[in-house]
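Hey, quick one: can you model this chain's 3D structure?
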Amino acid sequence: LPAIQACIDAITEHQRLNTLM
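Sure thing. Here's the predicted structure for all 21 residues.
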């Protein structure tokens, strides 16, 4: 489902930002 994929993308982006901090 596109909605699930979008959610995964958002979580991945969030994790990536946390890694930079």
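One thing worth noting: The mean pLDDT is 94.
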